[in-house]
Amino acid sequence: MQDGNALAVRPDADPGEDRISGSREKGLNRVLHILEFLHANQRAIGIGDLAKGVNAPRSTIYTLVRSLVDAGLLEMAGDGNRVYFGKKLYLYGMDYVRGNDLLRRGRQEVDNLSRETGETSELCMLQSGRYTIVHSSPGTRPFRISSATGLQIPLPWTASGRLLLAGFERAVIEDMVSEDDLVLPDGRRLLLDDFIEDIATAGAAGYCVTSGLVDAYTKCLAAPVFSAAGKVEATICLVVPIDTSEEKTGDLIALLRERAARLSITG
Amino acid sequence: MQDGNALAVRPDADPGEDRISGSREKGLNRVLHILEFLHANQRAIGIGDLAKGVNAPRSTIYTLVRSLVDAGLLEMAGDGNRVYFGKKLYLYGMDYVRGNDLLRRGRQEVDNLSRETGETSELCMLQSGRYTIVHSSPGTRPFRISSATGLQIPLPWTASGRLLLAGFERAVIEDMVSEDDLVLPDGRRLLLDDFIEDIATAGAAGYCVTSGLVDAYTKCLAAPVFSAAGKVEATICLVVPIDTSEEKTGDLIALLRERAARLSITG
DNA sequence: CTGGATTGTCTCTTACAGAAGACACATGTA
DNA sequence: TACATGTGTCTTCTGTAAGAGACAATCCAG
Description:
Arc Repressor Mutant, subunit A; 2 domains; 9 helices; disordered N terminus; DNA-binding; DNA-binding transcription factor activity (chains A, B)
C-alpha cells in the first residue's frame, strides 16, 4: 500500500536479497496493521505468521503483541501461541454502538427487515472511504447470500455504494474509487463516468437497484439514511434473487425507503 | 523508572508540582490510555481535554489522534473537535464475538434469562485481572438495576467475583485485589481472609450468593461457566431484590446453574 | 476592545523504541 | 544422528518518534 513515493531505494540494495523493507515503522502503525491483518484473516494467527503477515521483524511483533495482550486488546487463543482480538476490543465496540444512535437503531431495523421479508438485509456505511457492511441479517432463503459483517467491497459493485457517494464532488469520488474497483468479479469493467452518473441518479431517486453486479443471481435494493445535516450517512439494503418480480421489487423498495426515512429522524 | 545514569536531569526540576512524570511514553501506551479514558468517560472528548485526561503533551495527542482517526479506530464526533470510538473498533469487536463461542452463546443465554425471569441478568468475565460485566440484559422491574456493559467493579463486591477466582493461588488473588477493593460502597470493609474463604466455598458449591454488597437492596446469584480445561471462564448471574424468598432464590439458582452448565459444554 | 484560554499546526532535539541478530529450546523429518 | 524450521527471550545499536515550545487563529467574558 504505502511504499510508492518513498525516496530512492538504496542503489546498492542489500546483497542478501529482496528485503527492501527496512523502514523503521512507528509502533502504532505496526499495531494498526496487526489489527487489520487479524480482521482480514478472521482467525487467530501465530505470532511468527503475524510478523510475516505484516512484514515486520519478529522481535518487534513479540513486544507489541505482549503489550496488546496485557492491555486486553488481543488475547492468546486457546491452543497457546496464536493471538486474536480480545475482550477489550469488544467492550470498546459496544461503547461505539452505545454512543451511536444510528448504528443501534439501524441494526434493529435490519434485523426486523430480514425477519419480515425473509430476505438478507444489511446496514452499510462508508468506513474511511470504503464501503462496509456494518451489520447484516441472513434472511431465510435456502441459498443464503454470504456476506460477513465488516466485509469491505468496492463501492461500484453495490447499490449502497451509489447512494453513499451521492453529494460528493467528482474529484473525491475519483479518489475513493481505484481502477481495480471498477472491475466486477466476473471481469466486466464499469466506466467511471457511468458510475458517477449512477450516483447522481440514485441520489435524485432516493433509492438504488443493481442487478447481477457482485454475482449473477442477486439484485440489491438500497435506500439512504440521512444525517441531520442531510448527508447520506448509511444505507439499508436488501439482497434478493435477481428474478424477483417487478411488482415485489417495487414493494420492497417502498418498504425499504420508509424504514430508511424513519432511521433518518436522528437526534 | 530508568533514568539514574542519565546525564543530570534538569536541576530546577519542575517547579509546577506533583507530576514528576515527564517520562517519555511509548506512543502505543498513550493510545491505550486514550482508549481507556474514552471508555471510562463514555462520551466524546475534546482533544485538549483528552491530553489533560491522559496527562500527555498536547502535540503528542494531536498526532496520535490523527493516526487513530485516519485508521478509523476513533471518529470525530458530531460537533467537530471531539473524538470517540470509531467504526473500526466496532468491527473488531464483532470479530471478537464471532470468534468466541462462549461470548456469543453467553449473551444469548443472558438475554433469555432476563426475559424468562424478568430479573436483570449478566454475563461476567475476568478482564486482565478485573471483574467485567461483558453483557447485561435489563429485566423488567420498575427499579432497574443500573449496570453498564464493560463496567469494572472490584472483585470482592460481587458473587461472580468469588466464582471467577476459584482455583487461583492465594498469592495471585492477593495480587488482583487491592486494599481499596475490599472496601464496600457503603464503607464496610471485608477481610481478605474471609474473601478467600468465600472463594473456596463458592468454588466447591458451584454457585454463589451475595446480599447487599454493592447496594442494600439487591442480592446477586451467580453460577460458573467452565472452560474445556475445567477453569471458570465466566459466570452468569441474576440481580434480584434482597427480599426475594428463600424458595424463589433456590429455584433461580437451580435455573442459573443449569444454564451455566449448558454454556460450559464448549467446543 | 482587551486579556485569557483553547485550538490546530509547525519546528527542533534527544531519549528511547524498533530493529538486528544471537541464543536456547523445542519439533519435525530425512 | 544430523539438519531444517519455528518459537520465545535477550542484548546491543541507532534512526526517529515523542515531547517541548512557539505560533497564529478563534472564541468568549468582562
